[in-house]
Amino acid sequence: MASRTFSERLRAIQQAKQTVLCVGLDPDPARLPLHLAQTHTLPEAVVAFNTAIIDATAGHACAFKLNFAFYEALGRSGWDVLDATIRQIPEDVLVIADAKRGDIGNSARFYAEAIFTGLRCDACTVAPYMGRDAVEPFLRIEGKAAFVLARTSNPGARDFQERLCDGEPLYRHVARQVAAWASEAPGDGGLVVGATSPEALRALRVLCPTLPFLIPGVGAQGGDPQQVMAAAATADGPVLVNSSRQILYAASGDDFAKAAREAADRLRRQLGMPG
Amino acid sequence: MASRTFSERLRAIQQAKQTVLCVGLDPDPARLPLHLAQTHTLPEAVVAFNTAIIDATAGHACAFKLNFAFYEALGRSGWDVLDATIRQIPEDVLVIADAKRGDIGNSARFYAEAIFTGLRCDACTVAPYMGRDAVEPFLRIEGKAAFVLARTSNPGARDFQERLCDGEPLYRHVARQVAAWASEAPGDGGLVVGATSPEALRALRVLCPTLPFLIPGVGAQGGDPQQVMAAAATADGPVLVNSSRQILYAASGDDFAKAAREAADRLRRQLGMPG
Q1: Among A85, A117, A132, A160, which would you mutate to test the B interface (most chain B Cβ atoms within 10 Å of its Cβ)?
Q2: How far is the alpha carbon of A159 from chain B, nearest alpha carbon, in Å?
Q3: pLDDT at position A220, please?
Q4: Phi-psi map region of A219: left, alpha, beta (phi>0 left; psi -120 to 50 alpha)
Q5: Distance separating alpha carbons of residues A93 and A53, to the nearest angstrom
Q6: Superfamily in which the A6-271 domain is placed by CATH
Q7: The complex's ipTM?
Q8: Residues of chain A contacting residue B166, judged by C-beta atoms under 8 Å apart
Q9: What letter does residue A131 receive in the DSSP assignment?
Q10: Of A117, A258, B185, B212, which residue is 20 to 30 A from B128 by alpha carbon distance?
Q11: Which of A102, A128, A133 sits opposite B155 (nearest CB)?
């Protein structure tokens, strides 16, 4: 599959498995099941937890998304835990590094290499504030993708992303630029658009009919699965709808993996497929 | 010194050592001195290089800035190299994590803890795009500081930072919000403003007369030291002027540390002190 674009691989996986669900592997040390936390070191407990979640939910997911904050918090073990987790992910699930990197070209190249080559991730989230030379190093490899933050799901999204520039919210300018940059690059561009703003989802789908959207914010943050699909999923416009806490912490005892599987399957069905 | 604010500590160090110079510890594996690269593993060579640069330049610097991209590129050794480097930095030089983090509150807290508590850094660079809840976790500790990207030094700064919102470039809105958020927080707020835009430096100093400015972009990126100081350094408005490549790679042979010391001393004198 190495010679295919990220979008082609995504489409094939979503069709074969009939799922747009992305499972967020964001292991909070304070919420690990007690029996794992008590019998392992913290890094081992996180790998064991992630492995059980991966095994339980991979059949229902088109992607796993790893938020790097939860791994960096493990200090010197963080990278090994990331690496060990990614090794557990089967071929038919894409791996998204939720690292929100954004730096000048010289530094961005090092970040991109660490994430795409070092950790073998298929995609990375990227912050747009520093502009084109901060984003392009993540668009240089065919088969990989950069999901650029457009309209995020958190309360602070209103502070700058919704400011009007030339009569349009900033996030629309970002989306238009990402589409333009990606059209000239070997890698794929995508957008991060929060489930908490259906208007932004609708407006951005019209503006960027074929870019893949990574959509966080259903479940714990309040976004509604059906509303999200109606606003953003089309036959040509793929979505990956992420859920983390609702699946990871569906139960806190020995049955956490089974509960996670059921939560993933339920959300997969609620989301359905576009069209 | 633990009960003093970041700005108080910065002022005391700058006065005592008569320097506004910040040295960027951005070790590019391709540019390490050959005798180090040939006799050590890469992580060991980086620590040896950084240690020599720290020993040679600490007397001329008020801060060291570590761009995390160069460490993350080392994979599983990255964190240990960061930690070992930071241990070499003497008490009278502040440590800035140039990590440009920006994520929702839940994740931002983990990043802030890893950087301020895990790695004991004094300050961190933060991306503003996600708004208040992405910045605030970095403003919660007295004695620490968040330097938020305002107008950066790279070409892509023009793509979004200079867009006019309500008649003003976006970076001015960011600066005004950072000043407001910092005024209500235990930690200090600061701004990242590139040396390559003297107008932005001047405009932001008028808007934020007392915030510390971290200023990259002199030397390799083209900013002029005297122009930067005239535009941004005042008796009440502190600056930290960063130089990386011009100092790290002043020479590439056995004499690299001596050459780095001379380059740091020369730039310190060119910069001078405000007022």
Answers
A1: A160
A2: 5
A3: 76
A4: left
A5: 13
A6: Aldolase class I (3.20.20.70)
A7: 0.96
A8: 163-164
A9: -
A10: A117
A11: A133
